[in-house]
Amino acid sequence: MTRTAGREANGPDFVEALARGLDVVRVLGGSDGPQSLTDVATAAGLARPTARRLLVTLEALGYVRSRNGLYALTPRVLELGTAHVAQQGLWTILRPHMEGLVATTGESSSLAQLDGSDIVYVGRVAVPKIISLAVTIGTRFPALPTSLGKVLLADLPVDELEQVLATPSRSSVVPRWQPSRQERDAELATVRAQGWALTDEQLAPGIRSIAAPVRRADGRVVAAVNVTVHAAETPLSTVLEEHLPRLLRTAGTMSADVARHDTVPAVEVTAAPEPA
């Protein structure tokens, strides 16, 4: 990873130091393990003294830890990753439904939103499974070869879809499925028509997944929820005949709760007047 080119074009209010700090966080978050100062500086496109100052600052703030000259993120970065969802109240609303879905299917369930041409996992209820790709909150995958991504992309207007897919992926995963534009459009048309999406080892071997939309009161998709299975353990017939109906019911109740949340007027709380 290198620093984004052309930052000088962002104007005088652009804070380069903040951008560089976020570059360091992304480098550490995308690595396979703790990184040396040289590793971080090289990957972020920074001079070593600059990278060191940023790492020291992030460590002082509790987002990075160092040991034996190696740096890694701390769990505190989850505050950054989940702040967007928490602000919307989505996780509080949707988690009980996902827990119920996992209890009935015996499989993991995740919640994701779009970020450019990627999906980012913003909620997860997992069961112990050995899969080829580890998933946690904040994990990023290319959207198109995932069931979650197909649901989210299918909701976009055509012009917005093209703009989103033109954004370079920030995921390190190279998907197995590399469709032509015609194949892509046909797949998304199917998702729009049936209201759910399937991915059968298109992202990586062994990963089979179905997803459905979670909609706001105005009908727009705010997130997607899925059920993921290991292809060697769970046949496609089980996914479609048993898990899919449960997923669709769950997504429907999740959407109803989000819609109710959207329509509840905000109540402004003011302090009581002081006694005279």
Walk me through what this model shows.
The protein has 276 residues and is an alpha+beta fold. Helices cover 43% and strands 18% of the residues. It has helices at residues 16-29, 37-44, 48-60, 78-88, 90-105, 147-154, 158-165, 181-194, 236-263, and strands at 35-36, 64-67, 70-73, 109-115, 118-125, 140-142, 197-200, 207-215, 221-230. A hairpin with a 6-residue loop joins strand 7 and strand 8 (207-215).
Indicate the topology:
Elements: H1 16-29, E1 35-36, H2 37-44, H3 48-60, E2 64-67, E3 70-73, H4 78-88, H5 90-105, E4 109-115, E5 118-125, E6 140-142, H6 147-154, H7 158-165, H8 181-194, E7 197-200, E8 207-215, E9 221-230, H9 236-263
Antiparallel strand pairs: 1-3, 2-3, 4-5, 4-9, 5-6, 7-8, 8-9
Helix pairs in contact: 1-2, 1-3, 2-3, 5-9, 6-8
Describe what is shown at a glance:
This protein is an alpha+beta fold and 276 residues long. The protein has helices spanning 16-29, 37-44, 48-60, 78-88, 90-105, 147-154, 158-165, 181-194, 236-263, and strands at residues 35-36, 64-67, 70-73, 109-115, 118-125, 140-142, 197-200, 207-215, 221-230.
